[in-house]
Write a structure and sequence with these properties.
With 212 residues, this protein is mostly beta strands. The protein folds into 2 domains: 111 residues, Phosphorylase Kinase, domain 1 (2-Layer Sandwich); 79 residues, Elongation Factor Tu (Ef-tu), domain 3 (Beta Barrel), CATH 2.40.30.290. Helix content is 8%, strand content 42%. Strands 1, 2, 3, 4, 5, 12, 13 and 14 form an 8-stranded mixed β-sheet that branches. A 6-stranded antiparallel β-sheet has the order 6-7-10-9-8-11, with no helix packed on it.
């Protein structure tokens, strides 16, 4: 087994080329802690400024040669939660925003960025809705959802509200991936299964979470 590359100590392997997942059911998890007042019952919420994406991945019915053997071997190659892989939303490979027709080449604007906002540059100036709320973007090997419509200023710059937070601080000038955005995930369990019937049709569903 050969890794495509390593990132933050993780071996990253390839997913089968086809078939694509028929559905991903995403879950977003925020890390916060309530502190309860024992006298009034009021709560103070401590926000740890950390979030995580996870998902349930379902594949369409597949024949042995039509992806069943490839995907079942992929599950074994993952070695449970050991190895990581890149995956994205198969229903949203392109953004809804106008950047599709502007020919923009967006980049990270400034080093040392953290948190739930990302400053970007390289867009066409004074454009409305270059990205739309709900579009996906990729920063390094992380998948992020855009939380609000994005407009650019006179210098072709824009600030993105994103989820989850920035994990690895990107360098100034790092490319922002807006088409076929993917993120780094691993299996959520060391035990996974699939079905195969007498017609040699595979059924497969498994859970994943961000790998970090």
């Amino acid at each position: 087994m050969a890794a495509l590359f390593t990132f933050n100590g993780l071996n990253v392997i390839s997913t089968p080329a086809s078939p694509a997942p028929s559905s991903l059911v995403f879950t977003n998890t925020d890390f916060s802690a309530p502190a309860n007042n024992p006298f009034s019952g009021s709560q103070q919420i401590v926000d740890w400024q950390a979030s995580m994406l996870s998902a349930s991945v379902q594949l369409p019915p597949m024949s042995s040669d039509g992806g069943g053997d490839d995907w079942s071997a992929f599950l074994m190659e993952c070695r449970g939660m050991v190895n990581a892989f890149l995956i994205g939303d198969p229903t949203k490979k392109t953004p809804r925003g106008s950047m599709l027709v502007t020919g923009a080449a967006p980049l990270v604007d400034g080093a040392s960025q953290q948190g739930y906002q990302l400053k970007t540059k390289g867009w066409q100036a004074n454009k409305t809705g270059v990205l739309k709320r709900g579009d996906w973007v990729q920063i390094i090997y992380r998948l992020h959802k855009v939380l609000n419509d994005v407009d650019t200023d006179a210098d072709g710059k824009a600030t993105l509200d994103i989820y989850p937070q920035i994990r690895e601080t990107p360098a100034d000038g790092q490319a922002l991936v807006t088409t076929n955005a993917q993120g780094l995930f691993r299996l959520a369990s060391n035990t996974n299964n699939w079905s195969i019937n007498l017609a040699a049709i595979y059924g497969m569903e498994f859970k994943i979470r961000e790998a970090f």
